Amino acid sequence: MVSLGTSTTFLMSTPLWRPDPAYHFMNHPTTPGLYMFMLCYKNGGLAREQIRDQLPGAAAASRSWDRFNEVALATPLLSQKNPSDPMRLGLYFPRPEIVPNLHAGQWRYTYHPSTGALTPQPASFLPDDARTILESQFLSLRLRSSKLVKSETHPSNTTSATKPLPPQPRRVYLVGGGSANPAIARLCGEVLGSIEG
């Protein structure tokens, strides 16, 4: 379950006991034999709103998400217009963050798949930040939970030779204010994946 409010919280049931100092790990409160994993990010909705408010053409008085959604969905995956272009990611923390434990700031990077080079970029705003912030936030959830999920074959595949899906949760539920936003919900699903929806 992903709670998309002022902060972002990620909760997951798992049969695996793999505690880590970067997240909370506890016995499941309702199901014996399962555990519960929890990540808390202070800069969820606050960071998304900050990017929304910087977009040219956003209605400042209404703080509408329409322009943000339009730009986020029109921007290519990882801001990569061509396969040879570098990929773009960023960290957006208007306040000091819990996971990772960092001071407030914004950091943007390009990644060049052909060379493996990760290059810092200026912290100045670009409209692509509407998509980049969503991909970066949800990629952090996926990477931090990856040790607790396993590769499985998609339930609709019937042949044993089918390539397994990458490790991902079985189902993802979105709650909180951001869950009603179609662009946020769509990109969350694209990044986190989920075998059953």
Beta-strand portion reads 15-25%
Distance between the termini: 12 Å
Number of helices: 4
Tally of discrete structural domains: 1
CATH architecture: 2-Layer Sandwich
| CATH class placement | Alpha Beta
Which residues form runs of ≥5 with pLDDT under 50? none
- How helix-rich are the residues, as a percent range? 10-25%
Number of distinct beta strands: 8
* Strand order, largest beta sheet: 3-4-2-1-8
Give the helices and strands as they follow along the chain: EEEEHHEEEHEH
- What name does the CATH topology carry? Nucleotidyltransferase, domain 5
Give the oligomeric state.
Answer: single chain
CATH superfamily descriptor: ATPase, nucleotide binding domain
- Rg calc: 18 Å
Sheet with most strands: 5 strands, mixed
The best one-word shape is globular
